[in-house]
């Protein structure tokens, strides 16, 4: 199992864990003399331990060979590396259930296993201590439904027992817009945080890009002459690549980095989203997350009356439905237009 240790003359924790059949040793970048870093390091150990328990050997000795075709199938249908990572994580969780229930082959899956899996999965806890969400378990059952459909194509089963599976989804918490007061407090607090966090915040608030997209290659993605930023592999993979105008507020940052010889805007720690979670919690803003930067940017576009087609192009949204989900136009925004259309103002 994963474990923490110290090295001589180093203030940082190192973590030891198994990956691809080999024991790995890497620095966490977290200081042993910091209580906050100590808690983060312990959470990181729990995460790696959970993954180690979830990964199954490729030999088929633990998971019967009736399922050994699944990893290659998932790889064939994933359109992007991040999508494949999500698929593989879901499959690891499903594999644990199949192993516990001794479901050795697709033909032994029954319709009742769908609800059984949801109950089994939501009774388990994440490394951080929270129970697995109902929607997460449902998404994994839908993955198994897709796998069973493929099993039918391969003549491994006569019918898909999950064909009629339907499950309600719990309403997701709406990510809010970051208010002006919150933004001021956040930016003051970021002055004491690592450089990668300050740069990620600055880039996302100016462009609306996702957290992973804030790591830019200065030489290949940023063109100061054409004043553009190129995102070669956003969510959805390379086929979703897009280019946007360079916000002038970011030009000084990129010019400074080019002069210094830096290659990338930032380097992520092992779990960057967790670092932001700790950060917002420390500011007593548990309702916020880094993705709220994107929500804020898109809402600002709506308030500025940027045409929908242009706004969608700026944030690389292909669906109007998805784009509108991000907009947080409130009652005060509506009052402006309502007043203009009031009969009294038109007379």
Please, could you describe this protein's structure?
- By secondary structure, this protein is mainly alpha-helical.
- 49% of the residues lie in helices and 9% in strands.
- It contains 15 helices and six strands.
- The chain has helices spanning 35-54, 70-77, 81-100, 113-122, 134-153, 180-190, 195-207, 218-221, 251-260, 272-282, 292-303, 308-315, 320-326, 331-341, 343-346; strands spanning 3-6, 12-19, 22-31, 222-223, 228-231, 242-245.
- The strands form two sheets. A three-stranded antiparallel sheet has the order 1-2-3, covered by helices on one side.
- The longest helix has 20 residues, at 35-54.
- It starts with a strand and ends with a helix.
Looking at this protein, list some descriptive labels.
single chain, 347 residues, mainly alpha, DNA polymerase, domain 1, hpI Integrase, Chain A, 3-stranded antiparallel beta sheet, 15 helices, 6 strands, 9% strand
């Amino acid at each position: 199992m994963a474990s923490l240790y110290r090295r001589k003359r180093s203030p940082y924790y190192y973590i030891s864990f198994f990956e691809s059949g080999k024991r790995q040793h890497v620095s966490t970048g977290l200081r042993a003399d910091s209580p906050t870093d100590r808690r983060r390091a312990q959470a990181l150990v729990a995460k790696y331990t959970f993954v180690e328990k979830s990964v199954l050997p490729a030999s088929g000795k633990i998971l019967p060979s009736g399922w050994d075709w699944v990893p290659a199938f998932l790889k064939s249908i994933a359109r992007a590396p991040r999508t494949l990572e999500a698929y593989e994580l879901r499959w690891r969780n499903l594999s644990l259930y199949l192993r516990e229930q001794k479901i050795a082959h697709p033909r032994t899956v029954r319709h009742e296993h769908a609800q059984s899996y949801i109950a089994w999965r939501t009774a388990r806890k994440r490394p951080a201590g929270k129970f697995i969400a109902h929607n997460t378990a449902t998404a994994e059952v839908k993955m198994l439904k897709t796998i069973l459909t493929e099993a039918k194509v391969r003549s491994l089963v006569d019918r898909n027992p999950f064909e009629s599976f339907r499950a309600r989804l719990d309403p997701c918490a709406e990510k809010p817009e970051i208010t002006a007061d919150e933004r001021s407090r956040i930016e003051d607090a970021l002055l004491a945080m690592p450089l990668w966090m300050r740069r990620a915040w600055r880039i996302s608030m100016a462009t609306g890009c996702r957290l992973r997209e804030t790591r830019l290659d200065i030489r290949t993605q940023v063109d100061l002459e054409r004043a553009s930023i190129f995102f070669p592999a956003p969510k959805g993979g390379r086929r979703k690549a897009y280019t946007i105008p360079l916000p002038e507020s970011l030009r000084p940052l990129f010019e400074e980095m080019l002069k210094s010889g830096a290659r990338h805007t930032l380097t992520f720690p092992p779990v960057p989203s967790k670092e932001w979670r700790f950060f917002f919690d420390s500011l007593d803003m548990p309702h916020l997350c880094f993705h709220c930067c994107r929500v804020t940017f898109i809402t600002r576009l709506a308030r500025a009356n940027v045409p929908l087609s242009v706004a969608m192009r700026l944030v690389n949204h292909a669906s109007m439905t998805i784009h509108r989900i991000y907009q947080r136009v409130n009652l005060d925004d509506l009052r402006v237009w309502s007043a203009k259309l009031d009969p009294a103002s038109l007379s």
